[in-house]
Amino acid sequence: MVSGFSETGWLKLPFDADILSWVTSVLPAARASMSDPKLAHWWDCEDTWFVGVDALPNDARGAVGEGPALEGASIDIVRALFREWPPLHKAQVSVTRPGYPRPRRGESEAAFGYRLNRAAAHVDGLKPAGPPRTRHIDEPHAFILGVPLTESHPQAAPLVIWEGSHVIMGQALRNLLCQVDPEDVSKVDVTEVYAEARKRVFNDCPRITVQAKPGEITVLHRHLLHGVDPWPDGVPGSERMIAYFRPECTGGVADWLAQD
């Protein structure tokens, strides 16, 4: 399972009682964040998506209040896989509701079509910025760790990934930036290369739906193309909630670009 991570770019680790204990501990705070007036701006897509960046009030160990740290056999595997376990930031609390997606505030018709038909597929850390919608490497995450907080129907806005896409995306960016001074890498506009690599991914890589339950975790390579599918009419449930951690590479952008 772990040995194939370098080829697939993702893995799902099996049930871990320590992870479930952590979920039970943080769930009240995660639910409270959804109704916190200070975080109301994170409701988008006509209230079908709570983006929830930094919404969980956890400490650097992942603990909320007097609750347990985010630890267990699954975390030991992640730590060994990446050879590091950086201090944790406040987790994103990503919540989708029936009917997702509706258009985001200010989203163009084309962008909404991409969200609807391509699951808003993206590589984390390359956010489009400004009216030109240009992309730069501005958030060099070490990996993406998803911890389901609620059980949900398999068709209730699940995570989708393009298996093996991290190889294509990573190589395209390295080819562009290999001659750039490390201090200037984050200044380079990668929009065109990113878009071309993404087209290759859609053509060459299998699209896979990933479903996990509380007590399980998912781990994504930092270059993996991924997104969220719609929540179709008639699919039961009231919400799908996942906590995401994206600790930054200790070596910054240089480590983010490295092939591993």
From TrEMBL:
Protein's recorded name: Phytanoyl-CoA dioxygenase (PhyH)
Organism: Shimia thalassica
Domain of life: Bacteria
